[in-house]
Every structure is written in C-alpha cells, then in structure tokens.
Amino acid sequence: MTTIRQRRVEKGTEAAEDQPSEEKDVKPSGKILSDHTGGKLWNILSITVGGIVAISLGLLTSVYVATLHENDLWFSNIKEVEREISFRTECGLYYSYYKQMIQAASIQQGLHGLVYDNKTESVRTINILERMNVYQEVFLSILYRILPIQQYLEPVYFYIYTLFGLQALYVIALYVTSWLLSGTWLSGLLAACWYITNRVDTTRVEFTIPLRENWALPFFAVQIAAITYLLRSHLQPVQERLTLMAVFIATFLFSLTWQFNQFMLLIQAVALFILECLDMLPTAKVMWLYIIQISGLLLVCVLQFFNSMILGSLLISFNASVLIARTIQKNLKKGGLLNRLGKLILHVLLVLCLTLLINKFIKKILNLESDEHIFKFLKAKFGFGATRDFDANLYLCEEAFGLLPLNTFSRLSDTLLFYVYVFVLFFMTVAAAIVAFRNLSFYFFCLISDSNQVQFMEKMEECIITLKPDAAYNLIHTVLFGCLALSTMRMKYLWTSHMCVFASFGLCSTEVWKLTLKCIHLYTSQRTHVIKYSVPIITLLYISYKFWPGIMDELSELREFYDPDTVELMNWIKSNTPNTAVFAGSMQLLAGVKLCTGRTLTNHPHYEDKNLRERTKQIYQIYAKRSPEDVHRILRSFGTDYVILEDSICYERRHSRGCRLRDLLDIANGHIMDGLGENEPDLKPSLYPRFCEEIKKNLPPYTIHFTRVFQNKTFHVYKLAKHK
C-alpha cells in the first residue's frame, strides 16, 4: 500500500519512474539542484510558448470568421438597411435593442424604454430585460456611448467585432482545457486546429452573429476549463478559492446571455451527480459546484426582475434536491458492494422524487407555464404519443430540432476528428467502468487474499492514472452533450467543440497511450513518449496539408448580400407608414421590421412566453382556412394596422406535407390538409378557402376589410379597415 500511495503522488516522467530508487539517493546534491532549476526553467518556457500560441490562435480565429463574414456579405460596402436585414430572424430582434439603446437620448431613457416596452408586442407593455437575455446588448451600447470611438467605429462594427472577439476567448478556453487534461500545449494546438477546420460543425457565428449561443458558449468553455482545473488534486487553498470564483463568474455570464442556460447547466449537474455517486469526484468540490450553479442562476433571476421561468427551472429543483439528499444520507460510501448499491439506488430515487416535488410546488405557486412548450416538444419527439399542439409541431418540423444528420460524421471524419474521438472515448469509457466498479466494491477488495491484493491494486492503479477526476468529468460531459446533439441538431455546437478538446487530449495523453500499448503488449516508456508526440504532430501535418488550400480558397471567395425584395419592403414601410403603425406577419420577418423600421409588432421570434405563443398562433391564421371576417377580427384585436403576407409561406415547398406551416394550422384547426396524402379520420374540410391565397383575388368579402397597399415578387402588404 505504501508503494501505491507513492506512485499516486509521484509527478515525474515515465522514464524517471522506471529507474531504481537507489539512484536518486546517490546523486550529488548539486546535480539535484541543477536538475530542479533546469526543469523549472523548462516549465516556464513551455508555459510561455504555449500561452503565446493560445492567444495567437484565438486572435487568428477571430480574424478568420470576421473575414468570412465580410467576404460573404461585402458588409463594409452594403447599405445600412441591408446590414440590418442580414441579421435574420431572432438575431435582428436582439440587435434592435442594441440599436434602440444607441439611439436613445440618454442611457437612462434607453433603459426605461426597455423596461417599459410597448413596441415589441402591440397593446401590451412588457419588460424586455425580464423576458429576454439582452443584458449584453445593454452593456455594449453603454460601452459604445462612453468610449471615445464614435468617430472611428460605427455601432454595428463595435457589436460584431465584440462577438468575433469572443471567438478568441472561446478558442483559448478550448485550448487551455485540452492542455490541462493532457499536460502538453501540443494538445491545445490540435484542439484549436480541429475547431477551425471543422468550423461548419463547431460554430455558426459568421452568419448568425447576435444569436444568444454565440455570446454564451465562450463563457461555457471558460467554465469547463475552470472546472477541469478545479478537479485537479493537490490544489492550494488560494488556488481553489480563485478557481471557484472563476467558475462562478463564467457560470453567471453564461446564464445571463442565453435563455437555454438552465437546460445546459442541468445536464452538467447530472454529470456531476453521476460521477459523485460513483465516487469518481471529490464530494466537497461537487457540492460547491452545485451551489455555484444555483447562485449564478439566482443572480441572473434578480437581474431579470425575478423571471419566473428561472425560478421554476429543473436545475434549481435538482440541485436543491441533491443538497438535501446529501444532508439526509451521509454514509453513502460505506459498506459492501450490495449495501452501497442499495444506498445508491435509494439516493437516486430520493433525488428524483424531491426534484419533481420541488419543481411542481414552485410552478404551482408561481402559476408558471412559460416552458410548457418545451416539455410538449420533448414528449412528442421521444414518442410519448402524437400531438396536434401547434407549438410542439412547429419545433418538431424544424430541421434544427431534428436528429443530427449522418453527413455530420463524414465531415468530422475528413479531419480525422471523429475517428480519434471514438478511439479515445472507447478507452476512457472502459477505464471509467472499471474505476466505477472498483469504487463500489472497495470493501470486497479487503476480502481478497494478500497474495492477490498486489496484482489487483496494480490493475486498479492503472485505471486511476488513466481516469483522473478532471478526465472523468470531461468524459461524462462529452457523453451527455453528445446524446443531446444526436437528438437535437441545433445543440451540436455544444458537443463538437468539446469533441475537439476530448479527442486532442486523448491523442496527447500518456495515460491513454500507456493503457493502449499495454492492451496489445507493446508497452515501453520510451515508445509511449514517442507516440504521444509523434501522432499529434503527424495529425497536425495532415490537417495542414489537406485543409490549408481550402481555407485559402474560402478566404479569397467574394460574394455580396442580395435581397432586393426585403430591402424594397423595408424602405416602403419607413416611407409610407406612420411611426405608430402596427404590423402583423411571420415571426421571422417581423423581427426585421422592428430592426429596420422601428414599427410596432404583433408577435416576434422570442417564443418563451405562453401569451406570445397563443398570440402567434392567432396571427398565423392568415395562412389558414379562415373567413376574412375572422382574420380581420383577430388581427384588429391585437391593434394591427398592416399585415404582411409572404408567398414563401403561403405556397411553401421547403417542408414536406404535414410539416408546412399551413398544414400545422389546418391540423390544429381540425381541417383537412391540402394536397395528395392521408388525413386523420376526424379532420374535416374547411368551410372557407385559404386566406392568403383567396385575398389576392380582390373579391368583395376581402376588399371590405383589407386593401392592398404594397406588392412585389415576395411580399404583399394589406391595410386593415378600421370598422366601428
């Protein structure tokens, strides 16, 4: 046992471990001092070079995505309205609040306009800071106003350069995480190169700049790096406190900038829970991480004026349940194998029951229904019964919320990333299973005869070296977020970026190669070190040779933004409608209307509100089979002055039958769908034709209520009659 403890603490190289211990005693003291000084200088030099490489790669990534954005749109040459239109769907909505703060007479007036907003949803006054995660836009607008840069930098460039700058932070965080896991910055270099060469699957920042995930994921990567460092053994108390502070700040910023924060942190909390139950992470540090998650989320809740969706999140209920359960069950890690398994099962059941009870109680008290569409979507997605719910089907029919396409893996395989990832994942999973069994059956080991204890502990020691706490966390992290990505394509960016980290760590890990070579009976210390450095270098050379020409071609390809129909529509609205006019239409288009014209909307793409979802379904009756009287009455109930109809929705061909917007509306209304194909038996023909098609015929029942005032190849704008 003494020898085994010594090996755990030993920090030398494999070569040093293989030398007889007597040699260390006969070395002259001057030689020891010289070796210590040389090793220290080498470490300082390595950290310096590694840090410079990390910063350089981060900056290069920022310049790379910024150049791609410029080359794709010719952003510097197009008009202001075209720049704003390029912020599609919800991106335009978020950017509109930055523009609103910039154009306000003062910071105080701008904040007042956000807290008492009556232009985002007609006939309603809402608090934007409560409903949406736009504090980043508020902070940037204030920063732009107080810095002396207005003469040199346009507001839009200050905004997009900040997002591209965050990509530098993102890459540096991935680099550092891989470096911490493997012990060499060569691993970080490989992770960053994989992130860049797999850009199509690791980020979409260059064409969805204001999207919330582009703000949040860099901070999430920093948090993962800080947790990886926190889980290392032998940290000094000061180091541990500073790392906990870094985790808290990163968690807070991540939660503040993305409305889906609670779901991502819940997956992280589940990962910590699994590892702590299997005794693979120190309990004290895990408890601190639970508290940090709750504290960060509650602080965001306060800043968002006590947003009820945060208070009713599963994360807060789950973390509170774990802390309560740990207080009740203090002796989980004592007893034999069956005893511990029984306690563990009871602990898991207790946590699950407490989570459901606490969450249901909070939602009952707060009358919370803001997130019910998410659970309806999940229920339908995983086959717990078909649904006619309009909101759930709207998500189910979107490609982004479908399964991860198989061609993703072929792209990731082209850079060798997927092959390496599977190789590392296999060995790490096997090691994790062995370690988990060893931890659960520790008292079983005590019953083994003395002659077999040494062999048993030697095998177990190999697993401990292979799966340290920081590696164990990153293993379960990549597995859980991989499952999320496989089930929901939009979430793949959380997985693929960490895939770069995990694969590069394994390829540069002494422990992984040591275990691999021992499995095929080829292990020597020298061979391990040669492979540890040669394989990553060969991989880097291969990536450079294969993808460098493609990157250069991509950077030299010049395109230009072109959407004349939307530009014409926005210019007409600004020139021919009053500033107080209220517009109805699709969520995606109206976000652009608000940004480009400042007009009032009936609905918008930020879907995390039950009243807004009901309102959107009503507005979308313009694409259903309804009478002109019904549509006019619905639109006027929301104060609508103008309605915009889009041919791309009315005659949609992008989705198959059953997933077109008009089909979803027909099903929700109980009407038979258009076109050839089956219908559910209880669906009936509508008494009226489709509104968006029939209104273009200018028949009297329609012209009484609607007057066409604008038309081009894509859009038709109708003014509503104001009947008494």
Automatic annotation (TrEMBL):
Keywords: Glycosyltransferase, Membrane, Transferase, Transmembrane, Transmembrane helix
Disordered: region residues: 1-30
Localization of this protein: Membrane
Membrane topology classification: Multi-pass membrane protein
Glycosyltransferase is among the record's keywords: yes
TM ranges: 41-66, 179-197, 217-235, 242-260, 266-284, 296-324, 344-362, 416-437
Any GO MF annotation of the entry: mannosyltransferase activity
Bias (Basic and acidic residues) ranges: 21-30
Name of this protein: D19L3 mannosyltransferase
The gene coding this protein: Dpy19l3
